[in-house]
Amino acid sequence: MKADLIVGIQWGDEGKGKIVDLLAQKYDVVARYQGGHNAGHTIVVDGKTHALHLIPSGILNPKAVNIIGNGVVVSPEALIKEMKQFDHLLGRLFLSESAHMILTFHTLIDQAKEILRGEKAIGTTGRGIGPAYSEKIARAGFRLGELRNVPALTERILEYFIQNKAIFDALEITLPSREALTAELTGFAQELVPFLANTTQMAWKMMDEDKKILLEGAQGTMLDIDHGTYPYVTSSSTISAGACTGLGINPKDIGKVTGIVKAYCTRVGNGPFPTEDHGEIGERLRAQGREFGTTTGRPRRCGWFDAIACRYASRLNGCDDLSIMKLDVLDGFDEIKVCVAYEVNGEIIEHMPLDLEAATPVYKTFAGWDKTEGVRRFEDLPATAQTYLKAIEELTQTKIGMISTSPDRNDTILL
Ligand code: GDP
Ligand code: IMO
Ligand code: MG
Questions:
Q1: Res 295 pLDDT > 90
Q2: How far apart (Å, rounded) are the C-alpha atoms in residues 51 and 334?
Q3: What's the domain range around 315?
Q4: 47-to-164, 291, 398 alpha-carbon distances in Å
């Protein structure tokens, strides 16, 4: 059976965690394929909030098996901490032996480089994501499978420290001693080696046995290393294509693709964001949507829905449908705007330009509504909300499959 996929359409934090958790009830396997603990996926079940960073959002479904694929960058320290929240993970969580590790020095490099960038800082989560992926691509990374032989891994890391001494000195990064490194890696190995697996073979076998796999994207399309707002992006392929390399499945193995998108727009960190509102509307969206980062607690930048960016993302990912999240956050606005084109150097365009910084949004205005919070049937939505949703379908050329009206698993309209 083909694997279905959930992907972020905007700049992350669209509500992927809620949808993956909801759908996980119907899947045998949930797999992460890129990103690392820069992700923060929030799930609310029976009033209890769970924040996941590395462990797939299927973990709250006791029947689902969870895979961290080869394309993920794994901080052993962060993963071990997150694993402590759950009992009986053995047999329910599998880690790709070829996933690259984020070690302390990657994190220190990330933070030091952000300081050096000054005003041009990317606004990373400071989790070492960029340096770990850079070293993977530069063929100088360290993989989880190497934890099976700590002495050999220690030697390789110490060699790497010698080769890169000039860089560490310049960034004033203190490196661990052989003893400290060995002790740390031994601890990681004890906790993680029992979970290592050839997750590509696992995924193939499960597909051959007609098991249902759900692929859980992290971050969002506009943060994609190739197709996002470079250089203000993350360091992985966040789009659906990333699932092929990040788990080892071929494009023909991917079934339904669902794009997750908020009924408005947010971004954390720096970089262009045409519909950002610096005034009252932005403040109000932030307050009503509780738009503060799950990972870093930073206030998220907020603004109206960008239909041009969403149409672009939908095509890039091959979305079969969209889940519209946080519709309730727009409750009580007199009017609601949607970006339907950009003005770039006096010209009106309806596609994504190379330099989004130069784009000014052209808006279409819609009438607001009183309340959608907690609504569970499309017919029960106010007429103006129905009109808004139909316009989104038309503008993005993608049909809507789900609408979310609160953080709760059950407050979801299925179409
Ligand atoms: P992710 O990174 O895409 O998984 O999204 P996050 O978990 O970082 O951010 C989404 C936030 O919105 C979380 O706090 C969710 O609990 C919350 N949320 C999800 N769906 C809805 C919704 O329909 N309405 C409201 N008000 N909150 C939602
Ligand atoms: P989820 O999965 C929102 C952003 C950072 C920064 C840029 C690069 O919860 O949607 P990085 O640490 O990855 O090098 O930072 O990417 N970013 C996210 N923004 N949601 C995320 O994940 C993010 N992961 C990274 O804020 O702008
Ligand atoms: Mg998030």
A1: no
A2: 33
A3: 3-76+200-414
A4: 49, 18, 32
Structural domain contains residue 93: no
For residues 129 and 407, what is the distance between their CA atoms, to the nearest angstrom?
A: 28
- pLDDT category of residue 21 using cuts at 50, 70 and 90: very high
Protein residues within 5 Å, CB atom, of ion ligand 3: 13, 40, 294
| Neighbour count for residue 187 (Cβ, 10 Å) | 14
DSSP three-state, residue 291: coil
Q: Ligand 3 centroid vs 52 CA: distance in angstroms?
A: 9
- Cα distances (Å, whole numbers) of residue 349 to 200, 281, 339, 356: 42, 25, 11, 12
Determine how β-strand 412-414 pairs with β-strand 400-404: antiparallel
Do residues 280 and 368 share a domain? yes
The structural domain count of the chain equals 2
Catalytic residue among 4, 28, 37, 41: 41
- Evaluate: CB of 129 within 6 angstroms of ligand 2: yes
| 117 in the same domain as 61 | no
The amino acid occupying position 75 is S
At residue 280, what are phi and psi to the nearest 5 degrees? -60, -40
Q: What is the pLDDT of residues 71-100, one digit of tens each?
A: 999 999 999 999 999 999 999 999 999 999
Residue in the structure block whose two tokens are 């045409």: 274
C-alpha angle 345-351-356 in degrees, rounded to nearest 5: 55
Given the CA of residue 57, which atom of ligand 1 is nearest to it?
4
Q: What is the dihedral of CA 29, 402, 5, 399, to 10 degrees?
A: 150
Mark whether 351 is an active-site residue.
no
Q: How high does pLDDT run on average in the chain?
A: 97
Measured on CA atoms in the order 329, 334, 338, 343, is the torsion positive or negative?
negative
Nearest ligand to the C-alpha atom of residue 37: 2
